[in-house]
Each structure stands twice: as structure tokens, then as C-alpha cells.
Design goal:
Layout (H helix, E strand, L loop, with lengths): L1 H8 L9 H32 L16 E14 L6 E2 L8 E8 L2 E5 L6 E4 L3 E7 L1 E2 L2 E2 L5 E8 L2 E9 L5 H22 L1
Antiparallel strand pairs: 1-2, 1-3, 1-10, 3-4, 4-5, 6-9, 7-8, 9-10
């Protein structure tokens, strides 16, 4: 019994932390994170290279026609039409940003602070709809305004989210009416 009391009464020193091993693990983890980031960046650049056949985007014309509709919100990216996970990154189309959309008789002006602006002529608009997702962004059903357009012989879907979600249905109706009017006018001219 006394030997147990003696053992309990003895003072023990605390275990010493092995700082070299701990520093090695931290450095290893930081190198791993840097490698993963670098690989993601290279993958993004490679995707842009593969999509290099996409011609440069039309610029927003200086002579602005009167606006039919205006919207502020978020641009969530563009994908190949019908393939909501096939993100297009060429010419900055994969860069998320704030957006100011303006629909005119000439087409759709997409002004993105901090990213490249572009213009979709009315003759290249194909469809507008409300959907729930696009590459990297999924919302409730009808949460995204998806505009399908053609550029360089390729159909693209671009996803937008308005700051006032209730106005998105109005945009779908206006764009689809404009497409119907444009296709009827082109059909009559032939």
C-alpha cells in the first residue's frame, strides 16, 4: 500500500512536444494544399485551351437602344446548352460576378464589373427559361434565369440570378417573345 502511495505522490514531468515532427506535418499539409490549388488552376487553364475554338465575344455596342428590361444580380457562368455541368471558361465566361443585364431590341447586354462584358445579338438568342441549376450553382426550382444563345456555331446556356427573383419570369417571357418576333421577321424576309 505504501508503494502505491509513493508512486502516486511522485511528481512526473509532462511529455515534451516534438516540435520538429509537428512542424514537418504542418509544412507537409501546406505543400499538399498548394499542390491541389495548383492542379485546380492548371485544370481551369486546360479547359480554356480546349475551348479555344470559341470566337471572341461580341462587345456591348456604344449606341444603346432603349431598354426593354433591366436587371441587376449575379452571373453564375455559362455551360454547353443542355449540359448543365459542362462549364465554359473561354473568354471569361466561367468567371462568376455581379451583373447588369439590359434587354434591348438589338439583343442582350451583359455588363459584369470585374469581368469581361459581352453582348448577345437578338438573332443569336435561342431560348430563356427558369431552371434550378448550372455548373457550380444549384437553387430551388426556378431560381435561375437561363438564357440559351448561339456563339461560333455552339449553343451556350448562361445562368443569371436576379436580386429580385420575382422579375425573372418577366425576363423569360420578354426574351422568348423577342425570339419569336425575330424568327418570324427572318422567316418573312426569306
Amino acid at each position: 500500500m505504501t508503494s502505491l502511495l509513493q508512486l502516486a505522490a511522485e511528481k512526473k514531468s509532462a511529455d515534451v512536444t516534438d516540435w520538429a515532427a509537428r512542424a514537418g506535418w504542418v509544412v507537409g499539409l501546406l505543400l499538399f494544399v498548394a499542390l491541389v490549388y495548383w492542379l485546380m488552376r492548371e485544370g481551369w487553364k486546360w479547359r480554356g485551351t480546349l475551348q479555344g475554338d470559341l470566337p471572341p465575344l461580341p462587345v456591348v455596342p456604344d449606341d444603346a437602344a432603349p431598354a426593354r428590361l433591366e436587371l441587376t444580380g449575379r452571373y453564375h457562368g455559362s455551360t454547353t446548352a443542355g449540359q448543365w455541368l459542362d462549364r465554359i471558361v473561354a473568354h471569361g465566361l466561367g468567371t462568376r460576378s455581379r451583373v447588369e443585364l439590359t434587354l434591348t431590341d438589338a439583343g442582350l447586354a451583359v455588363v459584369r464589373p470585374g469581368a469581361a462584358d459581352f453582348f448577345v445579338p437578338a438573332g443569336q438568342l435561342r431560348e430563356a427559361r427558369l431552371d434550378k441549376g448550372i455548373a457550380g450553382k444549384v437553387l430551388a426550382e426556378g431560381g435561375l434565369l437561363i438564357v440559351t444563345w448561339e456563339h461560333g456555331g455552339k449553343r451556350l446556356d448562361s445562368g443569371f440570378r436576379s436580386d429580385h427573383a420575382a422579375e425573372q419570369a418577366q425576363w423569360v417571357k420578354a426574351i422568348n417573345n423577342m425570339i419569336d418576333t425575330t424568327s418570324t421577321t427572318e422567316g418573312t424576309a426569306r
